């Protein structure tokens, strides 16, 4: 064992439905503008040449059911409900027809976003990191094994805040399918077990405030829940 100067953080991990085993998380990739109606509500056009990405740190993960303080530095915290793909096999320059073989399972996640900071970064042509990658910015529910399988295109993806519907679509609305995303991302990275891909959010994103209770779902998967606490 190496002798560390201080105790390292534990490995970030997600629960798995039906077992006490954990899925250890290596990296979190996120797809931008993957639902046309969401791109439109943000004043953007969908780039149909190729998907684009940003990343979140595994240290930004929070478990479903958490109460997280309203984060610092923002007055416009937004919800984005997303299908999360969990990889279980290596994929590098993988052919489209083989890409689905890298999938271990799926979950439901919240890509929490400091929208005002993201917007200011976009305006100044600066990176999105502080708008997207912060403590508690990736809230992901228990994963479910669906090895090598595509989810049905008519599966609904939804988000409610305080029981009121905010976001609703079907997975078939995604501009880039899960195999297309994996195949493309594998031209840029040596993908492998522990890599998560948050696949973008449908229309209806909006602000949340302290006291709000968020509930995200995708048909057939474990739901995700988050309560926004007071700022600390
Ligand atoms: Mn997103």
Structure report:
- By secondary structure, this protein is mainly beta.
- It has one domain: Fumarylacetoacetate hydrolase, domain 2, CATH 3.90.850.
- The chain has five helices and 18 strands.
- It has helices at residues 36-41, 96-99, 115-123, 129-132, 178-185, and strands spanning 13-15, 22-24, 27-32, 52-56, 61-63, 66-69, 77-79, 81-87, 103-111, 113-114, 138-140, 144-145, 156-161, 164-170, 195-198, 206-207, 213-218, 224-229.
- Strands 3, 4, 5, 8, 9, 11, 12 and 15 form an eight-stranded mixed sheet that branches.
- The longest helix is centred in the middle third of the chain and has 9 residues, at 115-123.
- The radius of gyration is 17 Å and the shape is globular.
- The N and C termini lie far apart (37 Å).
- Bound molecules: manganese (II) ion.
- Manganese (II) ion is lined by residues 30, 80, 82, 111, 198, 200-201.
- Manganese (II) ion binds at residues 30, 80, 82, 111, 198, 200-201.
């Amino acid at each position: 064992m190496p002798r560390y100067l201080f105790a390292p953080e534990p490995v970030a991990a997600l629960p798995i439905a039906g077992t006490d085993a954990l899925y250890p998380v290596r990296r979190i990739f996120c797809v931008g503008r993957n639902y046309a109606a969401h791109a439109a509500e943000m004043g953007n056009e969908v780039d149909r040449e190729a998907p684009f990405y940003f990343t979140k740190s595994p240290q930004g993960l929070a478990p479903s059911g958490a109460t997280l303080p309203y984060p610092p530095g923002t007055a416009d915290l937004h919800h984005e409900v997303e299908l999360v793909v969990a990889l279980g096999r290596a994929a590098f320059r993988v052919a489209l027809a083989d890409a689905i073989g890298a999938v271990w399972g799926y979950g439901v996640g919240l890509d929490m976003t400091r929208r005002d900071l993201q917007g200011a970064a976009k305006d100044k042509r600066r990176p999105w990191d502080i708008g997207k990658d912060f403590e508690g910015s990736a809230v992901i529910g228990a994963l479910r094994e669906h090895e090598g399988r595509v989810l049905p295109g008519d599966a609904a993806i939804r988000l409610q805040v305080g029981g009121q519907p905010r976001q609703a679509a079907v997975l078939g609305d995604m501009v880039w399918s899960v195999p297309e995303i994996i195949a493309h991302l594998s031209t840029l990275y040596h993908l492998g077990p522990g890599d998560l891909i948050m696949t973008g959010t449908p229309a209806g994103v909006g602000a949340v405030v302290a006291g709000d209770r968020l509930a995200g779902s995708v048909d057939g998967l474990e739901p995700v829940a988050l309560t926004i606490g007071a700022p600390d």
